[in-house]
Amino acid sequence: MTTPDTPGTPAIEVAGLTSSYGDQPVLRGLDLTVPAGTVYALLGPNGAGKTTMVRILSTLLGADGGTARVAGHDVRAEADAVRRSIGVTGQFSAIDELLTGRENLRLMADLAHLPRTEAAARATELLSRFGLEDAADRRAATYSGGMKRRLDLAMTLVARPRLIFLDEPTTGLDPRSRRDLWQVVRELLADGVTVFLTTQYLEEADQLADTVGLLDGGRLVAEGTPAELKALAGGETLDDVFLALTGMEQNR
Amino acid sequence: MSTMTYAVRDSTTMVRRNLKHLLRYPSLTVTVIAMPVVFLLLFTYVFGGTMGAGLPGDLGSASGDPRADYLHYLTPAILVMTVVAVAQSTAILIAKDATEGIIDRFRTLPIARSAPLTGHALAAMVQTVLGVVVVLAVALALGYRSDASVAGWAGAVGTLLLMGWAVTWLCLALGLASGSVEAASNAPMPLILLPFLSSAFVPADSMPGPLGWFAEHQPFTPVIETLRACLDGTGPGSDAWWAVAWCVAISAVCFAWAVRAFGRARNG
Ligand SMILES: Nc1ncnc2c1ncn2[C@@H]1O[C@H](COP(=O)(O)OP(=O)(O)OP(=O)(O)O)[C@@H](O)[C@H]1O
Ligand SMILES: [Mg+2]
User: Fold this and answer.
1) Which residues of B18-43 are buried (b: 16+ CB within 10 A; e: fewer)?
2) Which residues of chain A have pLDDT under 70?
3) Which of A55, B16, B154, B216 is the most buried if burial means most Cβ atoms within 10 Å?
4) Ligand 1 mean position to A1 CA, how many Å?
């Protein structure tokens, strides 16, 4: 759902965010700001807390401490206002496998309260944009992993959110689908959409992100443009940065 | 549009989704409805002769045939079991939703929190009507006859739906709180047993001391007695008030519980 962006309001503002599962701390005082209309890539090893971060910012999980504002609204106190501005593609598939691809998109369009004809048109448009026309009227259960992933993302875009969370959007995709997805992210950016993504692939962050944050041990251990991070670790690639910085953290 | 209008619209969208599921997975509905039909046959033909002979005189329809008398006593009980069986399957469906990640998607949408649950509840009502029609048809084929007037039938259907609404919300809450599909299929087990400890299959006052007291006072007894009275064309009296009060109270508490559990349910 589109909401007028207040100029100057960051898309995401996080200060001192802490979170834990039981007595195991996951996030230990995290600060970050994502300006509207940019791509932020959150990088980190398995278990670093990337998904936890996305779940907090998308109102699925309450934080223990600190504040998080998304699209200018507090994620806890104004969850519904946040939900009106965001679209979320989680790490794990969130499609209805008993419905067809088209029906999944229609479901999202109906829940976004699009008028009937517009809903049908939007579903058709997204099916072709994600190369799912041929499978449109087959049950999603019969889709391949990559097709499910694309349908999942298409469902997120139905309501034209201004801020999109993508949790490891290209994990399990072949190189070609990965490039297609990068193209989708670039198109979203061209439309002024803000994208917050998590990834294991450093190349992906390098390709897409305006800002990269490296999450390890519950804190951001480095943050900057891909070029700044490479300079920081004195390495050629973000891989060097990743290994240098997350390694440091382990030897602490 | 107002919040209320949106809530209704979102619930309608969700019912459509759930009904599609039922159509694409018809074996579930068939299994759910087959169970009470088997109970009806079992209780009529295997236990019916003995049970009917044991019914106090005023409870039989005085047909002179114990089996027919017991079928008459039993039919409302089987209708109640049908409603419970449908509700129980709803616990499994919502738990399945919760483990498949789609619930997380719904929870990030600006829709009424209750809409996905209301979708399940209303779809369960459609299944309930279907189940009640099938079970009644089988009962009629076996020789069940009712003296109910139009008002009596309306009362019977109303009682069944109201009870269905209450146990469905209970099952939705149990299904969400249980955390896995396996646990969700076991959680409502007591609901299937509870009618046996009511006046469903034998009169409550035929049970020993504390059991009889429990049977007398648990929610299924006024519901079944109301149903029986409606179908027999007699007035249900205070049982109807108890039935309505129980159902409204259970619906309200379980609705709040289910919506809360839905807010917390996590992709497992
Ligand atoms: N439901 C949960 N209960 C208990 N601990 C959890 C739960 N979810 C996550 N954790 C723990 O929190 C930590 C962070 O998990 P999270 O899923 O956020 O990591 P991640 O960075 O997304 O990892 P990955 O790259 O493997 O997806 C991990 O140590 C994980 O074991
Ligand atoms: Mg993750």
Assistant:
1) bebbbeeeeeebeebbebbbebbeeb
2) 1-7, 233-240, 247-252
3) A55
4) 29
Q: How far apart are the first and last CA of chain B?
A: 35
Question: How far, in Å, is the centroid of ligand 2 from the Cα of A181?
Answer: 18
Task: List Cβ<8 Å contacts ≥24 apart for A27-32.
Answer: A27/A52, A27/A53, A27/A56, A27/A63, A27/A218, A28/A217, A28/A218, A28/A219, A29/A66, A29/A218, A29/A219, A30/A66, A30/A215, A30/A218, A30/A219, A30/A220, A31/A220, A32/A213, A32/A220, A32/A223
The count of structural domains within chain B is 1
Residue B135 pLDDT level (bands cut at 50, 70, 90):
very high
Q: What is the pLDDT of residue A236?
A: 62
Residues of A in contact with B24 (CB under 8 A): 98, 139
Q: Are A99 and B104 inside 8 Å of each other by CB? A: no
Cβ-Cβ contacts under 8 Å for B59 (sequence gap 6 or more)? B69, B73, B203
B173-194: pLDDT as tens digits: 999 998 888 888 888 888 888 8
- Minimal-distance CA residue to ligand 1 atom 29: A47
Q: Does the C-beta of A26 come closer than 6 Å to ligand 1?
A: yes
Angle B177-B179-B180 from CA coordinates, rounded to 5°:
135
Q: What ipTM is given for this predicted complex?
A: 0.89
Q: Is residue B1 over pLDDT 60?
A: no
Nearest CB partner across the interface for A60, out of B6, B108, B111: B108
Task: Name the residue of A23, A42, A52 to mutate for ligand 1: max ligand atoms within 8 A of Cβ.
Answer: A52
| pLDDT at residue B203 in the model | 84
Query: Which of the four pLDDT bands, split at 50, 70 and 90, describes residue B241?
Result: very high
Q: Quick check: A107 contacting B, CB < 8 Å?
A: yes
Task: List chain A domain ranges.
Answer: 12-94+161-250
Task: Determine whether the interchain pair A92/B101 forms a contact, defined as Cβ–Cβ distance below 8 Å.
Answer: yes
Interface of A with B in 25-84 (CB under 8 A): 58-60, 80, 83-84
Confidence (pLDDT) at A173: 85
Closest chain A residue to B24, measured at CA: A98
Write down the pLDDT at residue A239. Answer: 67
Amino acid identity of B147?
A: D
* Nearest residue in A to B7, CA atom: A111
pTM of the model: 0.88
User: Which CATH architecture is the domain A12-94+161-250 placed in?
Assistant: 3-Layer(aba) Sandwich (3.40)
What does the pLDDT read at residue A247?
62
Closest chain B residue to A81 measured between Cα atoms?
B110
